[in-house]
Specification:
Chains A, B: It comes from Musa balbisiana. Chains A, B: It holds the Pfam family BTB. Chains A, B: Keywords: Coiled coil. Two copies of one chain form a homodimer. Chain A is 60% helix and 9% strand. Chain A has twelve helices and four strands. In chain A, strands 3-2-4 form a three-stranded mixed sheet. The interface between A and B is large, with 54 and 54 residues.
Amino acid sequence: MWCQSCREEYEERDAGTCKECYEEASETEEELKREIDDLKSKVAFLRLASPHDLVSTTDLVLHASSSTSPSSPSNPNSSLCTTPAVPAHRAVLISRSPVFKAMLENEMEESRSGIIKIYDVSYDVLRSFVHYLYTAEVLLDEHMACDLLILAEKYQVKHLKIFCEKFMTSKVNSENAVASYAFAHRHNAKQLLEASLSLIMDNMATLTEREEYKELVEKDPRLVVEIYEAYLIRQVNTAAKDLTLQP
Amino acid sequence: MWCQSCREEYEERDAGTCKECYEEASETEEELKREIDDLKSKVAFLRLASPHDLVSTTDLVLHASSSTSPSSPSNPNSSLCTTPAVPAHRAVLISRSPVFKAMLENEMEESRSGIIKIYDVSYDVLRSFVHYLYTAEVLLDEHMACDLLILAEKYQVKHLKIFCEKFMTSKVNSENAVASYAFAHRHNAKQLLEASLSLIMDNMATLTEREEYKELVEKDPRLVVEIYEAYLIRQVNTAAKDLTLQP
């Protein structure tokens, strides 16, 4: 027989679908592609210009403060150092983040002054964050993904958090698995947590030699306990499966 | 053989694809569906809240004036009657429409006053228009599609124009084909023009009896000439094809 798709001959044992299903699948594919084109043009339409191109109409500014927040006493020696302002529109921040919405729709200091200070973040990260709120676009590297995920979590910008988490999950390897695991735990990133935990368990033999492991035992031993508990469950399940498979 | 998709038996002559192609197609379909989900969540993210929910941050208003524009002398007796204001943000109008961009980024009266008058449009249509600029969403009927297409053309909101044109094209029938054809001509709606012209040509026998045809001959005879020219080309092509097919 001849395959209608690749146009090559095949044996009966390599048969796939009947003609009707093949034609139906081709139609479905075309429909899905049309839907993708429609959605892409909708995304392009809904994307706002960058706030820098709309600067004459902005009605507030965000400042990146590279020190820790006053409410975080862990680093009391750092000074509050303010970088250039990032202009933005209240309407956009309100639409994208429930935290900004609460801040700007109520009579809070930020709403009155039109100045929002964002602590513990660099100017570049803040600019990328705001740019994403306008365009849903950002060029990620591992540092940027990490910093933006933290901001996205803080301001409840779910879409950006998922985007960064997907990127970080794609970058997990045996080298950074422990650090990723701790990070994922701290910032409620389930997908990243599962991927890094799975990789840690694949490399249990060398786990205790790792520097990050030793640090984690010091800093947050409960997280280490969770690794061992997950490993134990996996071992028990594997043993049970082996038993079932025995003749 | 058994089809791997519908699980039914088929004869050799009804064979579709080989197994490899079937599996590849299934993977492609899954990928396309994932892409659709990603794009849908991007659309949801980029959608702004309606301007009515952001009213405290709006920085201009649009007024629907149900009379003709002062520059259009065809209806000199109508009075300028202004309906309730539709609040909006300069930043959104600038992002969505090159016409609003030119108007608001230059020192034009609208930019200084923060008031934009939109002529020849009802309040409902204007509200839907502005709502679309924020959300890419609108509930269309034939009248709304027609009015919004005109606005979209005037303010160069290409995405909305395409959306309305698609809707109108899906509603063309032998009853409204002549009116649709004239409308499409007036507003550069190619897809609608082709669909309505094709339908007119399918019903040439009754064309000259139609009221809208008679009106069109009065108002814009060149458009009627174009119908006949297209019909002639079709007839010549059909005749040529028939000749080729003769034994």
